[in-house]
Amino acid sequence: MKVLVAGGAGYIGSHCVRQxxxxxxxxxxxxxxVFGHRAAVAPEIEFHAIDLGDAPALEPLFAAHRFDxxxxxxxxAYVGESVTDPIKYYRNNVAAPLTLLETMLKHGVRKFVxxxxxxxxxxxxxxxLVEDLPQAPINPYGQTKLDVENLLxxxxxSHGLSFAAFRYFNAAGAAEDxxxxxxxDPETHLIPLAMGAAQGHRPALQIFGTDxxxxxxxxLRDYVHVDDLSRAHIAVFERLATPGAQLFYNLGTxxxxxxxxxxxxxxxxxxxxxxxxxxxxxEGDPPALYADAAKARTELNWVPKFGSIGPIVxxxxxxxxxxxxxxxxxxxx
Length: 333
Fold this sequence. Notes:
By secondary structure, the chain is of the alpha/beta class. Helices cover 37% and strands 18% of the residues. It has helices spanning 11-22, 55-64, 79-84, 86-106, 140-159, 190-199, 226-235, 259-270, 294-300, 309-322; strands at 2-6, 26-30, 46-48, 69-72, 111-117, 162-168, 170-172, 205-208, 220-225, 246-251, 256-258, 276-279, 288-289. The chain has a 7-stranded parallel sheet with strand order 3-2-1-4-5-6-10, sandwiched between helices. Strand 5, helix 5 (140-159) and strand 6 (162-168) form a beta-alpha-beta unit. The radius of gyration is 19 Å and the shape is globular.
């Protein structure tokens, strides 16, 4: 299939592009490179540095290609920033996908795969999280993702759009061969922050709260390998053949891992000590978040290859060892 990958130069999008190629599909990448990296996309992949919300730029792209399906990975995803600058998040995470969807429907494309988030659930009413739990986001980031989910449901009814929305937990790791990895600016994810601290390229790692009602007092999260996420996105293609299909899946391993356990894994894999500073809890951090991914296993035959934190960290370490300063395509701060 010919697949337009919006946000295909970002962390998850770039890994999905490689998985698409491996599965025999033909990806075309669209990314404005605000957070993505051109180096994360192989030179032989067709690449367009345009903005998702730029309708005049999208028109010739859709006119030149007969896309079978569109994948969306182009959201802004900093929760704190979404609270302080919600207009930025609604413009990029809701208005821009609306333009994309309008353009693709105009050109007869009726299949869409959406990168959503477990943040649409807000503070969970019970664990593990299943797909039909109430959704009550507690920040604009989660709300924008839920808004797009609702838009997709409306378009399924009105235009026969077939879509899948994947609600991620904590994407982690890097390509197994070390070719591409995780490089955000600013970086907020635990594993790269811990590795940077261990390598001496970042400040000591701050642990936000050690008094949670968890086995070691630190937050529990569900870390899922980025390539496993990508494989799920491709596994859903067949189920989108039904017009108006509305599919929702949680993607996680179902295994909660604490902050301290992640730090221990980084130290074990790297052989380095991770310097830490213990701070207070952050407002809005629930003690635990982890998935029940039984639906994805049953319907998509999706079984994570990386089922525990150790192997995930090993792939991340290979990337960070070879790229201690990331892709090196951003100005020094």
